[in-house]
Specification:
This protein is an alpha+beta fold and 171 residues long. It is 21% helix and 32% strand. It has one domain: Aminopeptidase (3-Layer(aba) Sandwich). A hairpin with a 2-residue loop joins strand 2 and strand 3. The structure holds coenzyme A.
Amino acid sequence: MIQIFPAQAADLPEVDTLLDARFGPARRNRTAYRLRDGVLPDPALSFVARDGGGLVGSVQCWPLQLRTAGGAILPLTLLGPVATAADRQGEGIATQLMQAALAAVDAVGAPPVLLIGDEPFYGRFGFSAAATGGWLLPGPVDRARLLLRGHMAGLPDIGWVEPAVTVRRVA
Ligand SMILES: CC(C)(COP(=O)(O)OP(=O)(O)OC[C@H]1O[C@@H](n2cnc3c(N)ncnc32)[C@H](O)[C@@H]1OP(=O)(O)O)[C@@H](O)C(=O)NCCC(=O)NCCS
């Protein structure tokens, strides 16, 4: 039976093994990794899926920020990676993980959630590229895959997405 648990620091080695298997070791060259360089995942918003003890899925969230042209800093939440074990696709594991993470985001009133991913998958959870067309990242990104969920009112058309410098939560 698949069970969803809050992620613990002790889960990190297993999570890394899963992510290496699903994204490959070059995953660390992706732009998303530059957004969480030196930052640990937020344990209140990160979850693992287990079945009989074995890790079958993971979602992590990280503190992030958007710097506006006027120099204001707006907090965001970076969601990802999301991964399900290769032999457990299509069982609803990623859906359960997304639901757990987003319920936690809403429960604690975390900042709007940003991710880099496929809108055909993440759109079902309320993500869209509508607000992010003018947001710049520290690396290349496919604009159609820069997706935001949350309170978009008041967010600037143009901004710089950066690793959070004010929050360093330790798992
Ligand atoms: C993408 C991924 C997390 C989905 O995990 P999963 O546990 O199989 O997903 P679920 O079972 O909860 O949901 C499956 C549904 O998502 C859809 N789906 C999965 N990946 C999709 C994608 N890239 N685009 C559109 N739909 C997608 C499936 O078609 C299926 O649709 P259905 O419910 O209408 O049948 C998994 O395939 C994975 O780990 N991929 C490798 C890592 C990755 O690409 N992660 C996401 C980017 S951060």
